[in-house]
Input
Amino acid sequence: MSFRELEKVLTFRETGQVRRYHTLPTEPQSLADHCYGMLATLLALHPDASANLMAAIVEHDMPERWSGDSPSPFLVANGDVRYHVHKGQREYSRALGTRRYFDALTDEEKLWLWGLDKVDTVLLHFERARRGDLSLKRPAAVASKVLIDKQQELPKPLFGLIISMGTLRPGEEEAVFPPAWETAKQLAERLG
Output
């Protein structure tokens, strides 16, 4: 194995340790946990998903090993910065040779990737809210809002998951979050 190949393996593995939500007063989520959550959700909802989509899920935040996880509100408020961060991330991804997974996705697979990324934020909030941690309420509300706005385009199983959880309902403007004290048994009964 060449030094370059070893460096690539180490870079890929180190990427999983990048922290998400590091600017919020909560336990950060690692990219490894984020990508695993996306893959697990994909396999539960779309067991025949392509290997290319699975690879794109693993790769989609890999440039954050280089750039860090920039808080979304900051990027939205600073369009020029957002443009340059995303441009640099695309170039980094191409240099690693991983951008090819995303570039080869079909339009429907791109919607799966985009939607799973947002859904993971909502699901993480849902899991933490049940433990009493409401610190991800704002990011989850934003993710829910963009999912509502794109509901006609999203793969039906993906949008159906969020609706069935009671996290958001068609036609509602705001996300509806489960009470933090709801037990697993109560949740199971509600989902029937």
Notes: Residues 107-129 form the longest helix (23 residues).
